[in-house]
Amino acid sequence: MSDKLKRMKTILAEVTDLSRAAAVLEWDQETYMPPGGVAARSDQLSTLLRLSHVRFTSDEVGRLLSELEEETAGLPYDSYEASVVRVTRRDYDQEHKLSPELITEVARASSTARPVWLKARREGDFKLFAPALEKNVELNRRIADALGYKDRPYDALLDRSEPGMTTDELEAIFAELKKAIVPLIADIARHADAVDDRVLYRGFEPAVQVRYALDVVSKLGYDLERGRQDISAHPFSTSFGPGDVRITTRVSRDFFNECLFGSIHESGHAMYNQGMGDDIDRTPLWGGASPGVHESQSRLWENLVGRSLPFWKHFFPSLRSAFPEPLRGVDDEGFFRAVNRSYPSLIRVEADEVTYNMHVLLRFELETELLEGTLKVSDLPEAWNERVKSYLGINVPNDREGVLQDIHWSSVSFGIFPGYTIGNLVGAQLMEKVRADIPDLEAGFERGEFVALLAWLRKNVHRHGRKFTPNELLERATGRPLTAAPWIAYVRRKYGALYGIKPARI
Amino acid sequence: MSDKLKRMKTILAEVTDLSRAAAVLEWDQETYMPPGGVAARSDQLSTLLRLSHVRFTSDEVGRLLSELEEETAGLPYDSYEASVVRVTRRDYDQEHKLSPELITEVARASSTARPVWLKARREGDFKLFAPALEKNVELNRRIADALGYKDRPYDALLDRSEPGMTTDELEAIFAELKKAIVPLIADIARHADAVDDRVLYRGFEPAVQVRYALDVVSKLGYDLERGRQDISAHPFSTSFGPGDVRITTRVSRDFFNECLFGSIHESGHAMYNQGMGDDIDRTPLWGGASPGVHESQSRLWENLVGRSLPFWKHFFPSLRSAFPEPLRGVDDEGFFRAVNRSYPSLIRVEADEVTYNMHVLLRFELETELLEGTLKVSDLPEAWNERVKSYLGINVPNDREGVLQDIHWSSVSFGIFPGYTIGNLVGAQLMEKVRADIPDLEAGFERGEFVALLAWLRKNVHRHGRKFTPNELLERATGRPLTAAPWIAYVRRKYGALYGIKPARI
Fold this sequence. Notes:
The structure is a homodimer. By secondary structure, the first copy, chain A, is an all-alpha fold. Among the domains of chain A are: about 5-155, no CATH class; about 195-345 and about 425-470, Neurolysin, domain 3. Chain A has 20 helices and three strands. Chain A has helices at about 5-30, 40-55, 60-70, 80-95, 100-125, 125-145, 155-160, 165-190, 205-220, 255-275, 290-305, 310-320, 330-340, 355-370, 380-390, 420-435, 440-445, 450-460, 470-480, 485-500; strands at about 230, 235-240, 245-250. Chain A has a three-stranded mixed beta sheet with strand order 1-3-2, sandwiched between helices. In chain A, a hairpin with a 5-residue loop joins strand 2 (about 235-240) and strand 3 (about 245-250). In chain A, helix 10 packs across helix 11, helix 12 (about 310-320) packs across helix 13 and helix 16 (about 420-435) packs across helix 20 (about 485-500).
């Protein structure tokens, strides 16, 4: 390794340490911090993040990057040296293109809009929030301009979170999804009685749920020597290094799905980080390839594994031992059916596997239209409600359960929503290849064996960290870039069977 | 406030944020961090502490300090501006006088000596540790030389932790203690049967102990809106700001004192930090006046309050409700007597109130003699054992329970031990004045009222933070500098009564 690369790695390690320290402080804030700690914690976080930004965007890093680009020009694309230089350059340019003034204005606009959004949502009155949203839309546009784009301003925002992805590409994928899923949703609605999920509401002792969930995720492969589970209001996963990747969960006595599937979801994120190579630690290569690819790991374990019949063939006996009372008279298949009930609902974060992507689609459409000026902020609630009716077949009774439900638009954050759907699609696309590579995969699940799946994901996804863009990673792992086909085939097969929908209709 | 002071405060705030972030990471390391987190955490901590040191010792701070010293020359000693400049100067000079090379050498020597000490202690073989200790003694000498001193090298080390305190002053105080306590220890030994503490070993449900201890400390005044209690191997208190001051405790089913008195001790430290003025936050004025003064707050609440009869008159009924089985047939006075049993023992951290200072005295004597070259490292075990015999009247069976017991000498840390005794003395000296100022103090304790004591400590000690040196603080609060007399009078009175020792003898 050259002296220049060594020097750059020293700085990158320091930047990593600062942002990981910030992550520890954020984890503490969501789990254990007493109420009085808010003010000081906010000071500490802003100091750490500012120092990390200043260090990373320093002239020295810029100079080293230029020199190292020459030095590594002849190396293979996927070599360690070329990759660390390429990905560091991408991050460096992104952070450099936004002026300190714009960054300050964005931070100020977000912190102004947050309480306004909270009030508007509480009162169900979009008009209160409209001026703040106007400002945020304008700032999203200015960020897109600052970052630059070829065709459409949304490309710039999308590329920031999902490198290499374009708006046109996503529009084509969402069109395919819409064509397949809107009729499936209608079919499911006509066969709604086929699935009964009342067992999930029979009351499950919270402490036992939390213990059981931790036991399940450790059996799936989440390494507790390098992780732990705590309770927080909103579940999340966070990493302070390869040896310390934590999850949180929440638990409700009255609804079973929250704790177990929340824990599996977060452990999917966490196993991704636990599987990243030690060789890329403390560099910009360490981390998820994109939010969408990260979500693919959580959704894969949550839905394609945790909501599969083979999974429940294995786990249901121990679940029934843990909860003999509420599970009286229920069998593995009945429970599998219950946790897979699908029905159109108003709130994205509560949506099931089939309807979820429609929630994302409408947000993606509205974001691009707002950004491109074809939709005015004042017309947003109407556009929202129309699309919910059109894609999900239900009426939105108020803005609180409609356009005001998500926290995202209270900050300057266009381009994030698509990652949720990309996650679902990537998960199904990877799983299709896993099934081809490991023929007895699901027989293994029935025996409680998940190590083959995890090993496949480690080899083809986890260890690479951010070395490849999402589409590069998918092409290497599955032979083609992002496609909706595997996910569409998966939900048609699974939900066709669950709801007894005739093949002709699907 | 001048622009220069504003600028300096901005830098000091950043330095504070970095060291508080490090404190959060250390807290997490002792409470929740999974085993795999060790390596990354050590990287993060060293980055944070290095950046904090670099920022604080920057030329800009030096320049601002010189300018501000001129600017504040005419202000009263205890004014905010003069104090922040004076205390920042003290810290700045201390950090500057040690060269980066010496700091690196000290860090390296400590991390080399730690495993050697662990092995030597495990095998009870001082000879293994002797070479590492030789090196540490030499480095302590070099630190003393670098810091500078008038009379004796130990002055430099002492002044670093207990500003303004001298070796001669401490020697005089310890001589007074030795004269009073050695005979008292012998008297207690002759009346050992007077106190029976077998009740403490009857088995107390750990979870109930932890809950009960938290309830007690919150009644004493530890504010849980700005704090919390967790479990760790070694109890400690830590602060991330005035709104977030935490304690940890440990618990043993087989020995009652550990959890409750540990929690009270740590809450004494924590109430000190919770009582520091908001006006001094994020400056070097925020923090304890010295480790000794900090210890005075923990020992005051632990011993002078928590081991007093009025305390137990109030708390014993609720303790008996919490533990009806082990406390069957015991009354408040019997329990008060049990928790105050005094007997000479080998291990400092397990020593009772009377014998504790003798453990500190012998370490102080040995440290000064090693530093001044009148004692050779090879002769240390013999010197240790002789003094334990002479001060406590017991034989040391092996080095593990003798000279190798403390972690302190495995790093370069001479000058720290005296703080433990200073804490005991300061606590008693303050309490004597509190009793004079609040005549019905102990009647209040019996009624469960501790707010008058806390208010007195807030006003006279806590709110000042590091504004005054220990002796300045004591003179302002009690009218005189550190003296052993109040503590000697207190233990003579209390233990004389407990053990039925005739006044003539004491």
